[in-house]
Amino acid sequence: MILTVTPNPCVDKTVFIDELTIGTFMRSRKCTCIAGGKGTNVSRAVKAMGRETKAMVVVGGYPGRHVVEMIEQQDGVVCLPAWVSSQTRTITTILEEPIHRQTAFFEPGSRVTDEEARGIVETFRNAVRGARVVCFSGTVSDHALTGLYRELIQIAKDAGAITILDSHGDEFAAGIESVPHMVKPNLAELSEFIGFAIDSEGERVRAIGLLHARGIGLVVLSLGKDGAMVSDGTERLRVVPPRIQEVNAVGSGDSLVAGFAIGILEHSPLEKMARIGCAMGAANAMSWDIGHFSREEVDGLVERVVVERLG
Fold this sequence. Notes:
The protein has ten helices and 14 strands. The chain is of the alpha/beta class. The chain has a ten-stranded mixed beta sheet, with helices on both faces.
């Protein structure tokens, strides 16, 4: 089972209109709503590929209950909520369809008391039982939880699970201290962590090497539309996704993580998991709804992924 952990989920609502006019009342023909958050996206992508997953989320209030309901009823994923008193945020995206322009409004995340923070850890201790791979995704809602990944990654490792960290900033730095098996930063996130700009392939290789030196076994450096550099310390690959008609790239990095989680779970060779992860990221970008793709679509993209072995 692949367990995902999302400390700062949301009710993710999209309102579709023709043109945004500030200062007026706008009416929409269409509105969609899903459980948002990077870890929930990972679970949705894992489920789309027919593998077992559970989603742990930190939630509060009626919006939190709505998130749990959507994960279980819309996505068909077992949800393991850690409840707090402060309500879960809503993110509202306004999409101007003719020009495909997005304007997003982010509410603040939940505040968390010391007692609730201890409850989150205990919920995780129960959730991690039976998990083979655990994905820690996104940032936290409250500064008081900045060190959460450091604690949870160690708990997961002690339980025998393989850990994946996809975060940035202080949360990423704290999580690294517990040495997860895999990390998936993008260029800006890795540059922030190591303290120098990554403007060339040589600097990317150097930056990846610094993570390996800290004990990280697998580094997936996301390059956005250009794919990723992947290194396990022995093999180093550049993977480039096939050309597609992009609709919405949000969540493609999470689908990439889901592909690697599946590959790790099934002991796949590095190239195979890189191909599948890259193909899942591309498949995600081909539709508006995050993680709503099929295994057949991914299978059709896998062989079109370009893989280059780097020296």
